[in-house]
Fold this protein.
Amino acid sequence: MLRSKVSWCVAAMVFSAAPAAVAENEVSFGVAADLFSKYVWRGQNVVDDWVLQPSGSIGYMGFTASIWGNVDLNGDLVDDWEFSEVDYAIDYSNSFPGQETFGYSLGYIYYDFPNTGWKSTKEIYGGLSADVPLSPVVKWFYDIDEADGSYIQFSVGHTIERIASWGEDISCDLVLGASVAYGTDNYNELYFGEDDGALNDLTLSLGLPFTFGSLTIKPGVAYSTMLDDDTRGLDKSDNFWGGVGASYSF
């Protein structure tokens, strides 16, 4: 891994505590905790051992404020049971006026790295989504602090709902996802020491969320690989990991 201005600054962008959809004039809350066999971010192996990732969110009128953390359980990066990262984010998501097929999101993320000695950094992002088969999403993340560069991600996914059910409130879905990303020259220079734009990671995931009313238990697995020779200059450029998460919305 590159160890430069932010010593391979890392963070997770999927806040699993995102609350379930509710009426737009109601306040919603969500809490979650995920246990994974390693922490991989944008194809980079950050913690090569078990981690716990708690999170929480509050939403209102399309805005969601979230906090997410990574706890190193076995001292791979910091001392046992210490936080190596805490991220704070605010997001606004909505559909474009007059229709419900195409949506957008805008947001800001502050990445902090307690117990590591790394510098904090900040990103802004924007995204476009379509409620069509495979649910395509494109997101542009721009680091406005340490990298001054962009990470652009295209993702697709498919959910097979209620592959099993036990009454109205208890069911299991199958959730499949895939994403590929591109890093600009400044972004790749910070993280990989290469000042050319290039493809970054390909990531595949499979989840089996079990829903019990407002509670969801989600076992899952994922695989990622770095695609370009320059970005594959890292150790552990191919990663497979798994775990289970629990989330509750109210």
User: Anything to note?
Assistant: The mean pLDDT is 90. The longest helix spans residues 185-192. The chain has one domain: 28-244.
